[in-house]
Design brief:
alpha/beta, five-stranded mixed sheet, 15% strand, globular, binds NADPH dihydro-nicotinamide-adenine-dinucleotide phosphate, binds 1-deoxy-D-xylulose-5-phosphate, binds manganese (II) ion, DXP_reductoisomerase, NADP
């Protein structure tokens, strides 16, 4: 029986993880759940799967959770609060794997705790990797942590890598394994067919309606701006030690082919699956084995004649270019990009700014906030904080 801590259990990926655990309850048990303040979902999760620990970052939320569980006669779950306890639950001696599914750089500290405890990390949270970059991969190597990508495209690439490359993720150039290029597919987002000049009036509800995936709000908006693909480009550079000319982004509206790996011997390996996060999650949990997954529908070859691919028009997606440029500038620029994006997306979701202002604000912040590349987590978080402050002043400027 393998035990798991789920960071971000009440979110889209967190709930999908619990669903996979429930399909294989003889193999896996949930030791700890961590969330921010969604007491109602956390209460239901605690009553359903009975973890040993449940942690809410927000102290009042933890108090409400505790009283809900007592009222339900559930007194054997230890309710904790705060980031320090969340980090401790990512390091528990009797936990083999940690699902990193907190959204945003908020996931950084608990994810690093799991890395430093040498855990098997199911990495969904992309903001931590892209803001910590090489430092993240070095820490994983130093502490012998196993990184298994959960992001669907990166999980797809991982599945098409030679075992030796999987076991030495990011340590050697792709050419060492005979790989010439990795391809990330992109749906183009919910507004793919809408001219840019009409994007000023789209609503948060429209932006959160992804054509193929059911996801949390932040990543859904990132998919609509294509910032998600920009973050995934950066993620792939670090995870797979890929050079910029070894990564291609291919428009694929159906989100069935999640990635392609080109080998120098003329072979091209593609990964296909229906767009359901339980698939990459189950793969990673079972790795290096495989386990069956009960799904409402399965992919089959009937879909092949409906699949379309096209070159990407980068000019239609300024956020994607901002991310690639920030990555080329360095780690500090990537931290600033991510912070500005998190704040700008939040402001859009709260109807403070319009959708088409998101890239403008990020670009403005990148123009005025400059730092040398960081050497440790404290410096990363300091840069993040400064960029957030600047972005907040731009988004919430008094009219
Ligand atoms: N959803 C998807 O299909 C995919 C997601 N990812 C990545 O996985 C991560 C999670 O995404 P998703 O599941 O969609 O996100 P959701 O918004 O659905 O869930 C976010 C989770 O993080 C928790 N959370 C938010 N802020 C904090 C905080 N400050 N401290 C602790 N917990 C916090 C939330 O708790 P609460 O509910 O209490 O607020 C919730 O459990 C993101 O990094 C995303 O980019 C990657 C690929 C696909
Ligand atoms: C499920 C997942 O991995 C998301 O990142 C998804 O891929 C978003 O798709 P697009 O960014 O291609 O719209
Ligand atoms: Mn993805």
């Amino acid at each position: 029986m393998q035990s798991i801590t789920i960071l971000g259990s009440t979110g889209s990926v967190g709930q999908a993880t619990i669903s996979v655990v429930q399909q294989h309850s003889s193999k896996f048990c949930v030791r700890a759940l961590v969330a921010k303040n969604n007491v109602s979902i956390m209460t239901n999760q605690c009553l359903t799967i009975c973890p040993k620990y449940a942690c809410m970052i927000d102290e009042n939320a933890a108090k409400m959770l505790k009283s809900n569980l007592i009222a339900a006669g559930k007194n054997d779950i230890q309710v904790l609060s705060g980031i320090t306890n969340a980090c401790a639950l990512a390091m528990l001696d009797d936990v083999e794997m940690v699902m990193s599914a907190i959204v945003g750089i908020a996931g950084l500290k608990p994810t690093f705790s799991a890395i430093r405890a040498g855990k098997k990390i199911l990495l969904a949270n992309k903001e931590t990797l892209i803001t910590c970059g090489k430092f993240f991969m070095q820490e994983a190597e130093t502490h012998n942590a196993t990184i298994l990508p959960i992001d669907s495209e990166h999980n797809a690439i991982f599945q098409n890598l030679p075992i030796k490359c999987q076991k030495n993720l990011g340590r050697f150039p792709l050419s060492k394994y005979g790989i010439s290029k990795i391809v990330l597919t992109a749906s183009g987002g919910v507004f793919r067919k809408i001219p840019q000049e009409q994007l000023s009036s789209v609503t948060p509800e429209q932006a959160c309606t992804h054509p193929n995936w059911s996801m949390g709000n932040k990543i859904s908006v990132d998919s609509a701006t294509m910032m998600n693909k920009g973050l995934e480009y950066i993620e792939a550079r670090y995870l797979f030690n890929a050079k910029s000319n070894e990564i291609q982004i291919l428009l694929h509206p159906q989100s069935i082919v999640h990635a392609i790996v080109h080998y120098t011997d003329g072979n091209m390996l593609a990964h296909l699956a229906i767009p359901d996060m339980k698939i990459p999650i189950a793969y990673a949990m079972a790795y290096p084995n495989r386990m069956p997954l009960k799904m409402p529908s399965y992919i089959n070859t009937n879909c092949l004649n409906t699949l379309h691919f096209a070159e990407l028009d980068y000019h239609s997606y300024p956020c994607l270019q901002l991310a690639i440029d920030a990555n080329n500038s360095g780690q500090a620029a990537t931290i600033i990009l991510n912070a500005a994006n998190e704040i700008a997306v939040e402001a859009f979701l709260h109807k403070i700014i319009s959708f088409n202002k998101i890239p403008d604000i990020i670009s403005n912040v990148l123009d005025v906030v400059h730092f040398n590349d960081p050497n440790n987590i404290e410096e990363i978080l300091y840069i993040d904080k400064q960029a957030r402050a600047k972005t907040t002043s731009l988004c919430y400027v008094k009219k």
